[in-house]
Amino acid sequence: MSKKVLILVNHDVVIYNFRKELVERLLLDGHEVVISSPYGERIDDLVAMGCEYIEATIERHGINPLREIKLLDYYKKIMKDIKPDVVLTYTIKPNIYGGIAAKKYGVPYVANITGLGTAVEKNGIMQQITVALYKLAFSKIQRVFFQNTENMNFFQKNNIVVDKHELLPGSGVNLNHFQVLEYPSEDTIEFVFISRIMKEKGIDQYIETAKYITAKYPNTKFHVCGFCEEKYEEQLNELHNEGVLTYHGMVRDVRKILKKTHCTIHPTYYPEGLSNVLLESSASGRPIITTDRSGCREVVDHKITGYIVKQKNTKDLIKQVEAFIKLNYEEKKKMGLAGREKVEREFDRKIVIEAYTNELSKIT
């Protein structure tokens, strides 16, 4: 039976880049899909696919109580007006305020915990407030999907709807879209950072590593791709002009970058769900170097598909980058192919799509 599915997200990329295949499946199954998100260039693509769109205003990192109440009232108004049969939510604010609104109108809803966020991961008053809001929002929830066991354990420890939990392999990766790319020649050895550019994503450690490695190994190159959420743009432009790294800004199709790079470095210590950057790089046959934290360590087998480094530790990052450089060409290539085999076994996006369609089939 067809349903009206309302999807609440805080950014158009959250839905298009990582859930487009789910949207396609919902539309193919005859469901009506309505997306509420701040406007971004990917919204036009989603509308072209057949989705309806309702613009939202969300401050992703803001904690102004009046604006939070305004967002909750906005979600209540949407649900009252369009009367969805089910609500799917992603990221913290849509999960909490969308959940409260859905509960008010008795609409079945499914949330996806894409990461705890800095405020929740650290002990303190913000963690206590957020836990209380989650308990309020999720008290009638149908299902809570998690992207890593550490996040799920946090919810269990805090007794947040423990009987509704299910673990997914992150957002999964589209193995048809991200196919194994030909491994580039070793005239140069090139590394890439692909992420929102902010302190907690490890950009400082990456920059320091780039300075050290390029000075010691003249045949190496470092790339940075992503949107600057913090004040790094001037510094990156200076380093670009000095030849320390190449700053690309936002890249619409990361495969174009992965095609010419040998290894992806993701030195994050941000509390994320499960890194899509690592999944996409591994699926493309690229070795990965990332931190020993939940949401990252699940994707890499140390010294087999890449390397695991200590968080916030530039010295250790440099050590593992040098270990990668010293591998011969075939060893580097083999490491990337092992990563592809791992994501094929464990992180196929079809697993995620089936979990969602299964939940929708339970709604009468």
From TrEMBL:
Top-rank taxon: Bacteria
Organism: Desemzia incerta
Protein name: Galacturonosyltransferase
PANTHER family: GLYCOSYLTRANSFERASE
GO molecular function: glycosyltransferase activity
Keyword Transferase listed: yes
Domain Glycosyl transferase family: 186-341
Residue ranges annotated for the Glycosyltransferase subfamily 4-like N-terminal domain, each copy included: 4-148
Keyword Transferase: yes
Alphabetic keyword roster: Transferase
A Pfam family matched in the record: Glycos_transf_1
